[in-house]
Amino acid sequence: MQFTYHKESSSDVLKIDGDLHNYLFKVRRHDKDKNIFFRNLTDDFIYEYEVEFLDKRSTTLRLVGKESKILKPKKQLHIGWCKIDFKNIEKVIASLNEIGVSRITFIDCEYSQRNTTINVEKLEKLLHNSSSQSGRSDIIKIDYIKNLDEFIKANPDSYMFNFSQNNISDHMDDIKTIVLGCEGGFSQNEISKFKPNKIVGVDSNIIMRSETAIINIASKIL
Fold first, then answer.
1. pTM for the complete prediction?
2. Which CATH number describes the domain made up of 4-68?
3. How far apart are CA 166 and CA 155, in angstroms?
4. Pairing verdict, β 36-39 and 177-180
5. Concatenated DSSP letters for 95-123?
6. Nearest partner of 5 among 117, 141, 110, 136, judged by Cα
7. Helices (H) and strands (E) in the chain, counts
8. Degrees (nearest 5) of the Cα angle 15, 19, 24?
9. Contact (CB, 8 A) for 40 and 7
10. Any idea which fold 78-221 has?
């Protein structure tokens, strides 16, 4: 654990209880005489706190110092991800954060599962834990957009990841935004929205699941 996440980190006094209190002092068995480092993951500072009061249910901490410590991806990558089953998104979101993806925008594409809901709060909790473990000083930004047309309008330089002789490895320096299909891929109507030189693939004839493909994309580009 590189630091502990708390949204109110930077306050002169920090009070913790519940799950976080139990995790720090019962699971991790943190020594109350040692200072604890926190981030709020919205600024670039890491905050150092000392334990002022501790009992079985809660802890009061007092700020003793802060340090600007930036650890962010060297390259920005925005992925437009056609919605898939939420439980499969949960499985890979932490890995994508640790690889260094900057932003994910979920899109209702033609083959997307309409009965799935993106629980942003749950994803952000997973991302906070991921950054705490990896040291990353921010998290993936999560967005939603209602269809592919709206995404392209907002991101006109987007690439599409699909079956193509145009290898993604030849465009890694150019790709800042890329769209990934859901299970079943893209419809012909959706494919037609991209110029052929903006459609990239990999040198493989094996069909990847959407959650495998997104790890593949992020690993190659970042």
1. 0.92
2. 2.40.240.20
3. 21
4. unpaired
5. HHHHHT--EEEEE--TTS-TT----HHHH
6. 136
7. 6, 11
8. 70
9. yes
10. Alpha/beta knot (3.40.1280)
Tokens 């047309």 locate to 149
Q: Tokens standing for 208?
A: 């990847």
Task: Give 139-176 pLDDT, tens digit per residue.
Answer: 999 999 999 999 999 999 999 999 899 999 999 999 99
**Pair of tokens at residue 14:** 């920090």
| CA dihedral (12, 15, 20, 23) positive or negative | positive
Phi then psi dihedrals of residue 54, to 5 deg: -145, 130
The mean pLDDT of 52-72, rounded to a whole number, is: 94
Q: Tokens 């859901």 appear where?
A: 182
Give tens-digit pLDDT for 17-37.
Answer: 988 988 898 877 888 889 999
| Interatomic CA distance for residues 15 and 39, integer angstroms | 14
End-to-end CA distance of the chain: 23
- Residues with Cβ < 8 Å from 188, sequence gap 6 or more? none
Q: Is the dihedral of CA 138, 220, 116, 152 positive or negative?
A: positive
**Any idea where the domains of the chain sit in the sequence?**
4-68, 78-221
* Pair type for strands 199-200 and 159-161: parallel
Say what the pLDDT of residue 57 is: 87
- 51 — pLDDT class (breaks 50, 70, 90): very high
Residue closest to 46 by CA, chosen among 68, 16, 15: 68
Q: Taken in order 9, 14, 19, 24, is the CA torsion positive or negative?
A: positive
